[in-house]
Write a structure and sequence with these properties.
The chain is mostly helical. It is 80% helix and 0% strand.
Length: 295
């Protein structure tokens, strides 16, 4: 159904979403390029950050290009296979975002609470394994959603009140056993929503406890500053996602829910590079060195 049926708004939506998409891709590519080209950033924290940027590019690419094409062609039709593919990619990279943010919280916990063991524990092999496990669990989540959707047999001429194949709406259109589907959805919500958020909160409780034991105010500020960017992105990603789904549950306006979903599907991936580049001196210095080498 898109975000608006007003023909006068279509050029504005086209320009807005095209700009946001290009800014998101360019900003995250700069983060990846800065981390990969600067040897000073070859650390676990920035390794996870580059993977987060890659997941953000893939996440926004799973929804926005199709919306832009729909505006250009004046058609909002998507095929059955295309819809399931879009939902699968959206869940895959959305879950990947959440998993990597959880891994980054563990990385900050080890760096602040166990600094003497940090280099030995967070070795390159473990970092690569954590990213692989995050991808595998995200792929499992994606395929579980597909498994539920494939049991439904009434997807012909269905209207989805969003600008993409939103899993929360798509999986409610069911002609099969709704009880089994609900159990599966609750299980998915616990595994990929409640548990990651709980792990992040637990990590930061221990981080704050350790920081408060630092005697000097400069040391406490430095420790807090290393977590500031990550905590901002966590609040932005999980806060908006949870807020949108709770608001959609209590709101009767499907159009408002579609507009609200833009926050975590488009705005959050776009803001992540700005948060990390503006609040992180290492990234800013790496980008300056990269710019100087290019000149």
């Amino acid at each position: 159904m898109g975000l608006s049926e007003d023909p006068e708004l279509q050029p504005i939506l086209f320009g807005l979403f095209l700009t946001m998409y290009l800014v998101t891709v360019l900003g995250n590519l700069l983060i990846i390029l800065a981390v990969s080209s600067d040897s000073q950033l070859h650390t676990p924290m920035y390794f996870f950050l580059s993977n987060l940027s890659l997941a953000d590019i893939c996440l926004i690419s799973s929804t926005v290009p199709k919306m832009i094409a729909d505006i250009l062609t004046h058609s909002r039709v998507i095929s059955y296979v295309g819809c399931l593919t879009q939902m699968s990619l959206f869940v895959l990279f959305g879950s990947m975002d959440g998993m990597i943010l959880t891994v980054m919280a563990y990385d900050r916990y080890m760096a602040i609470c166990h600094p003497l063991h940090y280099a030995a524990v967070m070795n390159p092999q473990l970092c690569a394994l954590l990213v692989f496990v995050s991808f595998f669990l995200s792929l499992l989540n994606s395929q579980l959603n597909n498994l539920i959707a494939l049991q439904c047999n009434c997807f012909k001429d269905v209207k989805i009140a969003n600008f993409f194949c939103d899993p929360s709406q798509l999986l409610n259109i069911t002609c099969s056993d709704s009880f089994t589907n609900n159990i599966m959805m609750y299980l998915i919500s616990i595994l990929f929503g409640f548990i990651p958020i709980s792990e992040i909160l637990l990590s930061y409780c221990k981080i704050v406890s350790s920081i408060m034991k630092i005697p000097s105010s400069d040391g406490r500020y430095k420790a807090f500053s290393t977590c500031g960017s990550h905590l901002s992105v966590v609040c932005l990603f999980f806060g908006t996602a949870v807020g949108v789904y709770f608001s959609s549950a209590v709101s009767s306006s499907l159009r408002k829910s579609a507009v609200a979903s833009v926050i975590y599907t488009v705005v959050t991936p776009m803001l992540n590079p700005f948060i990390y580049s503006l609040r992180n001196s290492d990234i800013k210095n790496a980008l300056r060195r990269l710019h100087s080498r290019k000149i």
